[in-house]
Design a protein that fits this description.
Layout: E1 3-7, H1 12-22, E2 25-28, E3 30-33, E4 39-42, E5 49-53, H2 60-75, E6 80-85, H3 104-115, E7 118-122, E8 140-144, H4 147-154, E9 163-166, H5 172-179, E10 185-188, E11 190-193, E12 199-202, E13 213-221, H6 225-236, E14 241-249, H7 253-261, E15 267-270, E16 278-280, H8 283-294
Parallel strand pairs: 1-2, 1-5, 5-6, 6-7, 7-8, 9-10, 9-13, 13-14, 14-15, 15-16
Antiparallel strand pairs: 3-4, 11-12
Helix pairs in contact: 1-8, 4-5
Bound molecules: ribose-5-phosphate (R5P).
Length: 299
């Protein structure tokens, strides 16, 4: 019985970090694009259990290629195909906010379950849905939290008296998980969203940040609008320093520049999404979750 990790060339480094943490063979997926934009996928190395590494930032083309990969693996005789998607896309649209909207969380979860036996992912954006298995009961899911990875990243240079702030109620368990091992106090905001970039925020207890450094903690930074709004409030309340940490940083270079202009001194993220903010590898946490869930299949 053999298990192997398959990856796309643009994610070779992150995938090989996971392969090394698991002591697992890593194979590049042979991918070619036809002149019309279609993809040709080829799997050259067989295995019994295949872990396919694909972070689903900017997901549309990647999803189509994953369906081809899953099919090619099964045609090669692979018995079990497990998707490792450190960032899982389309999770925020978990209800139809307006009549007629597709519920993309349900569609994409079901699509993955139709083609993969299992899924490993980091802090998927599940707020009104209890679990991905509630959508697709046949899918075996290993959930990884980035909180421990971020706490260990912060530990060496955490300033005394630092307060950690989560921008909205949904972030509470998450910011508490990062703050607790570091002994930091926590404040949690209340957010109302009006559009992709427009939010209104209040932070009960914000007077506590006067004269103190603040670390903003959120599961993801998308446009950065939430953190910009929060930072303005924290500065007005007398915070001496504001920085941000997140599991998934999706922000563009322009949006990161706006965060810097808005007074956020530093943004640090895990490598679930590649980019300039990456400061911590999620591979050890992924490897632990994979061993716990599928240890008997690793060889
Ligand atoms: C929302 O529930 C999430 O936890 C983030 O707060 C949100 O996605 C951040 O989006 P943005 O950076 O665009 O404000």
């Amino acid at each position: 019985m053999t298990a192997a990790l398959y990856y796309f060339d643009d994610e070779a480094d992150a995938a090989n970090r996971l392969g090394a943490a698991l002591g697992m063979a890593c194979h590049a997926i042979d991918r070619r694009q036809f002149p019309d934009g279609e993809s040709l996928i080829r799997i050259t190395e067989p295995a019994t259990t295949a872990f396919v590494y694909r972070s689903l930032f900017q997901p549309n083309d990647k999803l189509v290629e994953l369906l081809l990969v899953a099919s090619a693996l099964r045609d090669r005789g692979v018995a079990r195909v497990i998707l490792v998607a450190p960032y899982l896309a389309y999770m925020r649209q978990d209800v139809a906010f307006l009549p007629g909207q597709a519920v993309s969380q349900r569609v994409i979860t079901q699509l993955i379950a139709d083609h993969f036996d299992g899924l490993v992912t980091v802090d998927p954006h599940l707020h009104r849905t209890p679990s991905l298995e509630a959508i697709a009961p046949q899918l075996q899911v290993a959930y990884v939290s980035a909180a421990g990875t971020l706490a260990e990243m912060l530990r060496p240079d955490i300033a005394p008296g630092t307060i950690m702030v989560g921008p909205d109620g949904e972030s509470r368990p998450w910011v508490e998980s990062v703050a607790k091992p570091l002994g930091c106090n926590v404040l949690v905001g209340e957010k109302v969203r009006f559009g992709d970039r427009e939010v209104e925020l209040t932070v009960p207890g914000i007077e506590q940040v006067a004269g103190r450094p603040v670390i903003l903690v959120d599961d993801m930074i998308s446009t950065g609008g939430t953190l910009l709004k929060c930072t303005a409030l924290l500065q007005a309340a007398g915070a001496t320093w504001v920085e941000a940490v997140t599991a998934h940083c999706l922000a563009s270079d322009d949006d990161l520049a706006q965060l810097a202009l808005g007074g956020i001194q530093r943004v640090r993220a895990t490598d679930t999404v590649a980019g300039v903010t990456v400061a911590a590898a999620i591979a050890p946490a992924l490897a632990t979750a994979i061993r716990e869930k599928w240890g008997s299949l690793l060889a």
